[in-house]
Each structure stands twice: as C-alpha cells, then as structure tokens.
Automatic annotation (TrEMBL):
This is NAD-dependent epimerase/dehydratase domain-containing protein. InterPro entries: Epimerase_deHydtase (IPR001509), NAD(P)-bd_dom_sf (IPR036291). Coiled coil: none annotated. Residues 71-83 have a biased composition (Polar residues). CDD domains: SQD1_like_SDR_e (cd05255). Residues 94-382 form the NAD-dependent epimerase/dehydratase domain. Residues 71-90 are annotated as: Disordered. Belongs to the NAD(P)-dependent epimerase/dehydratase family.
Length: 484
C-alpha cells in the first residue's frame, strides 16, 4: 500500500453550487470520500485534503451544507439542561470540529437533539487513515453526507457540514464568518498515539495537524468571534503516570517557603500526547493574552458504541475501532473475545487509566458548553468516570464472556510502548460531576451489550489487525506501511 500523507481531491461542482454553503449531498461516494480523488505521493502536509472545483480558479475549499438551515427550535422532552439560547434568543450555535469522528459524530447528534444549532467541520482525514493503513471500523459507517441526511429525515433537524482542513486558515475563517459559533468543540485532531509513532512522517504530521489546527482555531476566535467558548478535547495522557495524585489541571505547590498554583506537570508518552500538551500551553497562553474563554477536557479512554441518537438508525451508527493503531483497550478486548483471540495485555498489565462511556463524553461536552468558562479563563476538567488497570479490564471482559458462554483467555504480549507497567494512579475527576454529570458506569450489562455488538459484527473482523503493529522503540525515518 502506498504511503500517503498528502491528498488532493477533485470534485465536480455544478454551476449553481459555486458559492460557499452549497448543497452537495449527492456528490460523495458511500465511503465518505468525494466521488473522484487523486493521491499524489508528495509528503507536503500543507493542504491535507483539498477540495476544488473545475473551471475558474476559486477558493480551495467547498462549503457543503447538507440541508437548508432552519431557525426553528422545539423544546426537547426529557432534556436535562435548560434550553440553550444565543444572544438574541436563537438556539446556541455550536461548531463541532472533527464531527465525522468517533466522539464528534455522537456529540454533534446529541447537541442537535438538544436544540443547539450545529455545524460539523471535518476534512474526513480519519477515513483516509483507514484507507492508507488497510483498516476499517468494525461497524459499517455511512458517509457523512448520508448520516446528516438520515438525521434530518428522522428528526427534521439540520446539521451544517463544512468539509475542509482547519490547518487551512482561509477555510476556517470562512466557516467562522458564515456560521458565527457561540461555542466551538474541537475534536479535530489525529488522535492515535500508535499512529504518531509509526514513522517520522506520521510523527510530524500529527504534531503539525494538531498544533497548527488548534492555533488556527484560537486565531479564528480572536479575529472573528471573541466571545466564543472553546471546548477543546485534551487527554488524561498529558499527565503521564506521576507517583502523586493527579489534580484537575492545576496544583498548588509550596517551594522554598513560597506558594503558587501552577499548571499540573505534563509527562506525555508519545508524539500524539505531546501535541496535546503543546495545544494546552497555546490555549492557556491565549486565554491570558487575548482573553479567550476555554475549557480543556482532559478525556480518558472512551469505550462504547451507542448513544441515544446513534442508536436511532443504522445510517447513524458510529465507528468502532478495534485495530492496534486506533482501537482503544476495552473496545479491542471485546472484539478479541468475540473472535476467540486471547486478550492482548501489554506487558505486566498494571497500566491504569481513566475510562468513560461515549454516552458520558456527549454529556460532558454539553455540560461544558452550558456552563461556559469566563473571559480569559483557562479551565481544565478531567473527563473520565472510573479508572481501571489493563488487567482489571481483561478480568471484566473474561467474566462477561463467561456469562455469554464464551471462553476468554488472556495473553501477555511484549509491550510495544514505553510506559510504566505497574504504577500509582489516582486522578481527580470531580468538576464535571459538580456540574451535573450522571456517569454510566462499566456495569456487566454494558459489557454484555458491548460484547454483543462485537459478536454481531465478528465476521467483519480482520484478524491481522488484532496484534499491536507499532513499536515506540523501533520508530524510524523510513515511511512505513503497517497493514499486511
Ligand atoms: N477516543 C478516545 O478514546 C479519546 C480519548 C481521549 C481524548 N480523545 C480526543 O478526542 C478527540 C476526538 O477523538 P476521536 O476518537 O473522536 O477521534 P477520531 O479520529 O475518530 O475523530 C477526529 C476527527 O477529526 C477530523 N480531523 C482530524 N484532523 C483534522 C483537520 N486538520 N481538519 C479537520 N478535521 C480534522 C478527522 O477526520 C476525524 O473525523 C481527539 O482530539 C482526541 O485526542 C479521544
């Protein structure tokens, strides 16, 4: 498979669609990519996914709006939060960057269901990674255009779609000027630690994509929407595994008789995690310097497939990654159990992390938006609900397997990462609970349903993707193709 980091993509645009925000719902293939695209082997990163029309030279970005925008807002039965309104009493506008991804898609639907006016911004690069590496979601997923069309037909609610790269500031500025968000939820990053450790070019891509994308969002807020609240997805992995309790963002230290409250030390353990640390520093600085209001959600590892909204129709189904590059621990273990593969515990299995259900991700983001940070405030929430070691997860999956009549074995495999395999871990996570988070805990029932999903789709599992394929120590400069 060719190694690709730069993609330019041509799309035929009918004459009536040459203005921003035109209707483009039928112009993408079911894979989620535009009907035709070429894949040069250049490693230049600057325009990752460039959509451009034929004919006279025009802006490199297409603004795709799947359905006409309705200002109507109906009260949502059962909503646990007050109706969100913007300045003039209209629905609060939320831009969801990365809204075609795992967390972003579930969040976009949840917010739309709660009567927020939602615009998704995404360059669909996550789907491209799968094509590059020969990976696929366990669950079949529809194109973003079909997803949005299906949502509209089920609920009558509109979601705007802007396809483009947030590293392209011109594109991002146009989306800000046309949508005028009250809040931006920023999920739009390369989010896999193993992906960032495949080779030099993926490490460079990850840091450029994530750091520059976030920097552009900060500049766009400053320039076009300075009251807008940035809700940025960070990760608990930024803190590493210190031998003391992990606080929520800040720690008060007394040193040589003087006391100060300082950002909690960061000890990231991959080029991906390091990109998040740098994002956090850039956001903190711009809160101070420009008065940006921001919430950094240091999220734990997310598991689960269904939210109330994605369960409404097969076309709304979320992605479910189980491979060694993008799959997260619990999702991977459930798939391994379903296909009769021993659970792959890395090393001693004492690695302990915070975890949360995807239904809590969408709740947390809504809580952050509904209770915005003040002007100039850099607020940090640790977004997870429970902590488990890898061995504890393996034991839970084994137990759930027994209940379903599946024999589950566990094997220790050489750890491809550089990390402590046994360590102290106690991370605070009270701020979102104080705001009203009602956690979905990892009960047996949930595990059963996760396992049941894995069993339902087990014919789609590619056994070659189960073992880890990326080694932290073996990363080199040569471009590497992971899939066999
Ligand atoms: N999934 C987890 O367990 C987890 C845990 C902690 C933190 N997070 C954070 O949450 C966020 C979302 O994670 P996810 O699992 O949904 O990831 P994902 O890869 O499924 O989704 C990210 C989306 O962002 C888009 N994107 C990436 N770069 C972009 C760019 N330059 N311009 C426009 N769109 C771009 C991708 O196409 C994709 O649709 C990430 O920032 C990640 O670091 C996720």
């Amino acid at each position: 498979m060719a190694h690709l980091l730069s993609t330019s993509c041509s799309l035929n645009i009918p004459p009536s669609c040459k203005k921003p925000k035109c209707l483009l719902v039928n112009q993408c293939s079911s894979s989620g990519f535009p009907a035709s695209f070429s894949l040069p082997t250049s490693t230049s990163r600057s325009k990752m996914l460039i959509l451009h029309g034929k004919g006279p030279k025009r802006s490199s970005t297409i603004y795709a709006k799947a359905v006409s925008l309705s200002q109507e807002s109906k009260a949502q039965p059962g909503s646990s939060f007050p109706q969100e309104t913007g300045e003039a009493g209209s629905p609060k506008k939320v831009m969801v960057i990365g809204g075609d991804g795992y967390c972003g898609w579930a969040t976009a639907l949840h917010l739309s269901n709660r009567n927020y006016e939602v615009a998704i911004v995404d360059n669909l690069v996550r789907r491209l990674f799968d094509h590059q590496l020969g990976l696929d979601s366990l669950t079949p997923i529809s194109s973003i255009h079909n997803r949005i069309r299906c949502w509209k037909s089920l609920t009558g609610k509109d979601i705007q779609l802007h396809i483009g790269d947030i590293c392209d500031f011109e594109f991002l500025a146009e989306t800000f000027k046309s949508f005028e968000p009250d809040a931006v939820v920023h999920f739009g990053e390369q989010r896999s630690a193993p992906y960032s450790m495949i080779d030099r070019s993926r490490a460079v891509f990850t840091q450029q994509n994530n750091v520059i994308g976030t920097l552009n969002v900060l500049f766009a807020i400053k320039e076009y929407r300075d009251e807008c609240h940035l809700v940025k997805l960070g990760t608990m992995g930024e803190y590493g595994t210190p031998n003391i309790d992990i606080e929520e963002g800040y720690i008060t230290i007394t040193h040589n008789g003087r006391t100060d409250t300082l950002p909690y030390p960061k000890q990231a353990s991959s080029f991906y995690h390091l990109s998040k640390v740098h994002d956090s520093h850039n956001i903190a600085f711009t809160c101070k310097a420009w008065g940006i209001r921001a919430t950094d959600l240091n999220q734990g590892v997310v598991y689960g497939l269904r939210t109330d909204e994605t369960a409404m129709h097969d076309e709304l189904c979320n992605r479910f990654d189980y491979d060694g590059v993008f799959g997260t621990a619990l999702n991977r273990f459930c798939v391994q159990a379903a296909v009769g593969h021993p659970l792959t515990v890395y090393g001693k299995g004492g690695q302990t992390r915070g975890y949360l259900d995807i239904r809590d991700t969408v709740q947390c983001v809504e809580l952050a938006i509904a209770n915005p940070a003040q002007r100039g405030e850099f607020r940090v929430f640790n977004q997870f609900t429970e902590q488990f070691s890898v061995n504890e997860l393996a034991a839970l999956v084994t137990k759930a397997g027994e209940k379903l009549g599946i024999e589950v074995k566990t094997v220790s495999v050489p750890n491809p990462r550089v990390e402590a395999e046994e360590h102290y871990y106690n991370a605070k996570h009270t701020k979102l609970i104080e705001l009203g988070l009602k956690p979905h805990l990892l009960s047996d029932a949930l595990l059963d349903s996760l396992l049941n999903f894995a069993i339902k789709y087990k014919d789609r599992v590619d056994p070659k993707q189960i073992m880890p394929s990326v080694s932290w120590r073996k990363i080199g400069v040569k471009p590497k193709t992971v899939a066999v």
